[in-house]
Amino acid sequence: MSTPAAKLRLDKWLWQARFCKTRTLAASLVSAGHVRVNGQKAGKPAHQVGEGDVLTFAQGKRIRVIRIVALGARRGPAPEAQGLYEDLSPEPPEPPQAASGAPKYDGGGRPTKKDRRSLDRARDQTLE
Known about the structure:
Blueprint: E1 8-9, H1 10-16, H2 23-31, E2 35-37, E3 40-41, E4 48-49, E5 54-59, E6 62-68, H3 78-82, E7 85-87, H4 113-127
Helix pairs in contact: 1-2
């Protein structure tokens, strides 16, 4: 007879893997329905997860897709926490480039009066 696979509460794993600062925040994230486990919404913070499960949730402006590699025994330092999962998230899109006619910041400080006049002339020509 085989032993059952090790499982851990979802909120506790999110906290140990350092996706949430506190376990209470992790529990509220799960309770609000913002975490999916293997494509299904996790309704309770006590939802059991194990190795190989895939979690999907929003973190800041990114959507994170995480595969659980290991269950932690404690909330350790960041390098230890990063060993608990494999990040499957797509790369974030690059920010849009400014239009070619827009002035760009070159680190030179405020524009001089001459520079402002030339910018105003350029804007007036584009509006015509």
